[in-house]
Amino acid sequence: MSKVFYAELWGERQAKYDALNANDIESTTWEEIKPQSPFYLFKPYDTKLLNEYQKGWKITDIMPVNSVGIVTGQDSRTIAFSPEDAVHLAEKHGLDSKVISPILYRPFDKRFILYDSSVVTRMREEVMRHMRAGENLGLLTSRQVLKEFRHVFISRLICNLNTLDTAGRFGSGPIFPLYLYPDPSHPAGRTDEYWPAGKDGRRPNLNPEFVREMERKLGLQFVSDGCGDLKKTFGPEDVFHYMYAVFHSPTYRSRYAEFLKMDFPRLPLTSDVKLFGKLCNLGAELVSLHLLESPALHNPPVRYPVSGNDIVAKGYPKYVPRDVGRVYINPEQYFEPVGQEVWEFHVGGYQVCQKWLKDRRGRKLSYDDIMHYCKIVVALSETIRLMAEIDATIPAWPIE
To answer: Measured between alpha carbons, how far is residue 134 from residues 129, 130, 181, 185, 216 in Å?
Structure first.
């Protein structure tokens, strides 16, 4: 049987050149490695943590109905910042305004798409119809990332391929709808007969085997719509909130970082009902913040104090960290206070506070835009706090 050996070299370029010139295959210190299923990595890694990680449920096994996002092939001609701009695009294409649909284009960035097969290359209607049919939650995540795993977000809307990252960086990924709505093309109008129909005929997009394991571990009964009381019952939205909390744990992300770069996230289950309830509540807070529905965002303590033309100028935004921290959209106008940790916070491959404004260069911010940005700043600040609280709530790893 063949053997595999590994060595690595860190440092500045010249130091690497010098080391390579001074050594050869014989003088290099090699480490024998044994690549294992499922990744067959050609580098050392902690197999104990791999075994631990693989005990969790892969998200694609938990929520079997999913799809990568919409591909238009011509975003500038099919996606607009406002409903009014979308109407103009529809008129240019000779389309009825009824084809206009809201879309989560980037984190915290709702836009409007001409959702019609004449202009959209990949509509992903088999999954996106569930996000359009009624009230729903969609989990966005990724299978491959190049750097840190920060690729978890939520949407009530349809989304495009690059909502979490650009496709060339592998971070683009699927959306997992929590509920499946009746299929109008099906003779019985049903999508999945396993679960009893809930609100508007919807059923949870959850693997029954996964649900049975949760029932067994928690000693709670599953109800197939909404939330349970977390004392005797739990529901699909509790599962979603628990999952959202765990995936936002900084320890989860760092502990399993190597595997999260090349695999869908896996969810560890707990048999501790109190821990489950606490994480459900924290996850629900995160969900509310990321949907910008949280009461904490009603009066955001972020100021936009200087009058002006409200146009995001070329070369902006710019962050000035002194004093309270300011984000300038042009030489005169700015948002404050914006902490540096908030300014640098990433969702997926995007630095949110920078990306949202950068995409609006040359545009005049409306009053609603200004208030929206203020809410984003607060939502990210609260996210950072809640992520730390989630870590403090989980007593030990692996979760038990």
So the answer is: 9, 7, 8, 17, 31
DSSP 363: P
Average pLDDT, the chain: 92
Which are the contacts of 370, defined by CB distance < 8 A and separation ≥ 6?
304, 310
Distance between CA atoms of residues 231 and 152, nearest Å:
28
pLDDT tens figures, 116-146: 999 999 999 999 999 999 999 999 999 888 7
Element (H, E) at 269: none
pLDDT at residue 190 in the model: 52
Q: For residue 168, count CB atoms less than 10 angstroms from its CB and return exposed for 0-12, middle for 13-18, buried for 19 or more.
A: exposed
pLDDT for 313 equals: 98
Q: Is the peptide bond before 317 cis (omega within 30 degrees of 0)?
A: yes
8 Å CB contact between 178 and 138: yes
Is 24 a residue whose pLDDT tops 70?
yes
Residues 140-183: tens digit of each pLDDT: 999 888 788 999 999 999 999 999 987 555 556 799 999 999 98
Single out the residue of 66, 3, 43, 34 nearest to residue 261, CA to CA.
43
Q: How confident is the model at residue 192 (pLDDT cuts 50, 70, 90)?
A: low
- Axis-axis angle for helices 236-247, 273-290 (nearest 10): 80
Closest CA to 181 of 194, 192, 173: 192
Strands 100-106 and 109-114: antiparallel
Q: Is 203 helix (H, G, I), strand (E, B) or coil?
A: strand
Q: Which two tokens stand for residue 7?
A: 């060595």
